[in-house]
Amino acid sequence: MKKKLISLLVIPILCLFAVCSFHFVKADTALGMVQVNLHTDGRLESSDVLKNMPITLTSTTDASQTLTLTCEDSSNVIKTKKTIPLGDYVISFQLPENYVTLSGVYTNGPRTDTYVQNGNVVTLNQKFAYNMIYINIKEREEPQPVEKYGKIEVNLHTDGKLVESGVLKNMPVTLISKEDPTKTYTLNCQDDSNRAELENVPFGEYIVSFDIPEKYEVLDGEVGSGVMGNYLANGDTIAIDNEYAYKQLYINVKEKKEAVTDNGSQNPESNENASSSNDSKKQESKDLNTDKKKSKSVKTAVFVNSLFFVSLSLFTGILTILFYKKTKKS
Q1: Which of 94, 107, 187, 304 could potentially form a cystine with 196 if both were Cys, beta carbons 3.0 to 4.6 Å apart?
Q2: Bridge partners, 59 (sequence order)
Q3: Where is the composition biased (Low complexity) (predicted)?
Q4: What is the full per-residue pLDDT of the chain (330 aa) written as tens digits?
Q5: Could you give the CA distance from residue 31 to residue 205 in angstroms, rounded to a whole number?
Q6: Which residue ranges make up each domain of the chain?
Q7: 158, 254 in Cβ contact below 8 A?
Q8: 31-139 belongs to which CATH class?
């Protein structure tokens, strides 16, 4: 009887102890506050990045326990109330595509904190102060195209040969970029070598432009045996695509031929006179042909008129004879 009574008393006591223990543990769970600061290149700046980037905390001891922290403005700061259970959490977030996270240490006076990365574990252990979480980001840098430069050399030939003269010295050669015509590069010859060089010309296609002296004309054709390419004409297109070797350009010119006088000297005026004489002869010949055509036309007209009158006379005579015979019979 006593044993039954003791058993009946022990069971309620154990239940009461269990209930009290449960409430004691729950009441002993510590809560804290969390503050998240999103830095850009190490500084807190206003933007909408954190506003569009929720922060998730997942308990390391209970994966079902997750907390989502959001920013409501452009301050890039999140502050919670004292509702976050203290402990270890895995932090996760997703950055916008044009940003990347930065590692490192943030120092604020005597306090030093480490910037967290996506997937890091953070420990919340402050009951009375904010548990600080710092994230550092920067805009993703697009790779810049590497600018390459080449070198160029112009050689001016006279009748297919490189000879010394002052032609190229007085004939700048200009390269005009096909991609951007406002970008031009000019080669100047400083002596009588008829050669000019220029370095640091950006890779690309260029239009070659030059004005030769009046008494010269440009010749086309192959350079040498053709291994070195063809001679350039004004307006041709070339490509700069080698960093190390000079791009060789060749221009071929020759002096224009002038008329020769009786004593063997060249006389530009005689050319003009000869040309004028030829023009006069051509005009005289043209006038003579015109007169011949007019004379022929007049003769043709006279012949046609004569033939008409002869035919008319014959016709009139025949009619007269017929009329006479008819009258005689009657």
Answers
A1: 187
A2: 89
A3: 265-278
A4: 555 555 555 565 655 555 444 444 344 579 999 999 999 999 999 999 999 999 999 999 999 999 999 999 999 999 999 999 999 999 999 999 899 999 999 988 888 899 999 999 999 999 999 999 999 999 988 887 888 999 999 999 999 999 999 999 999 999 999 999 999 999 999 999 999 999 999 999 999 999 999 999 999 999 987 778 899 999 999 999 999 999 999 999 999 887 555 555 555 554 555 555 556 555 666 665 666 565 666 566 666 667 776 777 777 777 777 777 777 665
A5: 69
A6: 31-139, 149-255
A7: yes
A8: mainly beta
CB-based contacts of 307, cutoff 8 Å, min separation 6? none
Integer-rounded Cα Rg, in Å, for the chain is 53
CA distance 275 to 258: 12
Nearest-CA neighbor of 251 among 209, 191, 214? 209
Which fold is adopted by the domain 149-255?
Immunoglobulin-like (2.60.40)
Distances from the Cα of 129 to the Cαs of 31, 32, 81, 126, 308, in angstroms? 11, 8, 11, 6, 136
Q: Do the strands 55-59 and 84-85 form a parallel or antiparallel pair, or are they unpaired?
A: unpaired
- Rounded to 5 degrees, what are φ and ψ at 176? -110, 120
Please tell me the distance from the alpha carbon of residue 63 to that of residue 90, in angstroms, as a whole number: 9
Exposed, middle or buried: residue 188 (CB in 10 Å: 0-12, 13-18, 19+)? middle
d(CA 296, CA 307): 17
Contact 287, 293 (CB under 8 A): no
Domains 31-139 and 149-255 share a fold: yes
> CA 41, 112, 72: angle at the middle one, nearest 5?
55
User: Sign of the C-alpha dihedral, residues 45, 48, 53, 57?
Assistant: positive
The tokens for 303 are 């012949």
